Hints:
Mean pLDDT: 88
Shape: globular
Number of domains: 1
Oligomer: single chain
Radius of gyration: 18 Å
Strand content: 15-25%
CATH topology: Rossmann fold
Strand order of the largest sheet: 1-2-4-3-5-6-7-8-9
Low-confidence stretches: 1-33
CATH class: Alpha Beta
Number of strands: 9
Largest sheet: 9 strands, mixed
Helix content: 25-40%
Distance between the termini: 20 Å
Order of helices and strands: HHEEEHEHEHEEHEHHE
Number of helices: 8
Structural class: alpha/beta
Amino acid sequence: MNVLRIKSLISIMAGIGLLAGSLILPNAIAQDNSDGRYRPEGRTFARNAANLFDDRLFEARTYIAGTDVAEFASATIFYPLTLSFDRPNGAVVMSPGYRGTPEAYDWWGPMLASVGIITLIIETNTTEDNLEQRKNALIAGVELIKRENAEDSSPINNKLDESQIAIMGHSLGGGASLRAAAELGGDIKAVVPLTPYCCELGQSFEGDLNDVSVPTLIIATAEDTIAPPETHSRLLYDAINSSTDKVYLEFAEGSHNLPTNQGTDLQIQGTYVYAFLKANFTDDSKYADFINGDGEENFSSYETN
Length: 305
């Protein structure tokens, strides 16, 4: 399971990836509004990841929920279209970055849902919500997705394995995801901060993250001028207790908006996040072997403990 296969798959799929099977058919499903809702690239990235791990590829659907939740305005939920006898799926709840909206990250939804991970992307009450508000939104998002699982009219009713939930966030949402992980503890299986901003805007990080006990994957870029790794991503990684499983992946190139639709290396990001989530959702060693493999080909800094 060599990471070099990612680049080979990208080359193979380059000519056909955005054509064959990349668009979702607009089937009529209750609450579904998939037609035209998201970009097809995420579907292509999912197909490449599925081929890499010899995994199943699902059709993806999406709907809006959570408009009655005080901690955020709404939530866009992407989910795999499964059969009645399929096992329930894992899920990840994501917070946008400062001034970000769910639409800025809509490649993540079809990417992860197409490989079997329900993905909830929060729309914050205002795009300028602070770190504390985003932390509370992530915690509320975990509760929302559980309620959706129990709701008879929900498209994901009984489709969620509540023992397999993770959280994720970009920028200020990434910093918030670590604070939320510390509070949620064993209620989640993993946390994924993407080019995280360490703290409330304008403040510097102090203290530690010893309360973060769940496996953590931090993705950073050396060219980040908004949240430079030495004062944000790397500092946060080092602040997490060494007894906690953690991974630090730093790209040599790319802006602070690396994880957004306009970012770079989206295939690699998506594949690593998928493998990390599956490694912590399941006992299948192929995902852990991939995460713990030789990553120097794709990253300027690659560290696991």
